[in-house]
Amino acid sequence: MVVSASQRRLIDVVRVLYARTLTVRYRGSVLGIAWSAANPLGMAAVYTAIFGHTFVPYYDGSLLRYGIAVYIGLALAGFFIGGTSQALPSIVSNADLLNKIHVPFAAFPLSTLAAWGFQQVVATLPLIVVISLFINHSVLHVVALIVPLAGLAMLAVGVSMLVSGAQVFFRDIAYMYELATFLIWVTSPIFYPAGIVPAAVLRLLAFNPLFPILESVRALVLTDAWPSAQLYALSFIDGALALAIGVAAFRAMRPQFMDLL
Q: What's the Rg (C-alpha) of the chain?
């Protein structure tokens, strides 16, 4: 595939901003990247202590399996919500720089999300892979994780592009997105099993793009069975659709950015 000059410039700028963000983030940090794994682990331990005995029947009577399910939910949902929330103000907060030099607008949300994702890839993903191999001993299950995780990445990129561009026009979008992420959080089976949700409500939860991703990853990590074909397909399709919408919307908004910054 031939990379155009503008795409090459975008990649170069993203790389520079990504490195700068990581340098600033970890300067003076003791735990550094380890905090990305320690934080959801600690939260999973708290949820397990409080809700474990209530929901353990849905996990073969194993508190450990419940704790792992919660950890997966916290890690994946935390990546999406945290990454997109940080990417949202990235263009507006760099307005002074954009008024001085020509920098591709997309570089700011993409580099912010990439820096956030780096923590997950280095600290969280290896742990999920090890857990999967320990529980089901299947390399195929580990390879199959690529589909829902790619869907998660595309979903995060698409939403980041959409909300960062929208904030240039509507500065109140940050408050609206905070409410949206809260709704996504409570409608995602993070600390509760999807099995407790009534069928009528479960059909509504399926519209939450995180739902098929979480359920597919959990099925691949915690069981010997494969996730349902519908959920597995949706875990990728929802992400691809979000990416297409986010990129298209960003391109449509981009010509007016400089007039509004």
A: 19
pLDDT of amino acid 95:
85
Triad 56, 129, 72: Cα angle to 5°: 40
Residue 144 CA to residue 218 CA, distance in Å, equals 12
Q: Crossing angle for the helix pair 146-169 and 173-186, nearest 10 degrees?
A: 150
Distance CA 193, CA 223 (A): 14
Mean pLDDT within 25-34: 61
Nearest CA to 227 out of 205, 212, 211, 206 is that of 212
Sign of the CA dihedral running 78, 83, 84, 85 = positive
User: Which 3 state secondary structure label does DSSP give 75?
Assistant: helix
CA dihedral (193, 196, 197, 200) in degrees, to 10, reads: 140
Q: Please state which of the ranges 24-28, 170-174, 235-239, 241-245 shows the lowest mean pLDDT.
A: 24-28
User: Rounded to an integer, what distance in angstroms lies between the CA atom of residue 254 and that of residue 104?
Assistant: 10
**Comparing C-alpha atoms, which of 234, 50, 45 is closest to residue 155?**
234
pLDDT tens digits, one per residue of 204-228? 787 899 999 999 999 999 988 899 9
pTM of this structure: 0.92
| CA distances from residue 45 to 38, 41, 167, 243 in whole angstroms, order as listed | 10, 6, 36, 33
Which domain range does residue 199 map to?
5-260
Question: What is the count of structural domains for the chain?
Answer: 1
Q: What pLDDT score does 234 carry?
A: 94
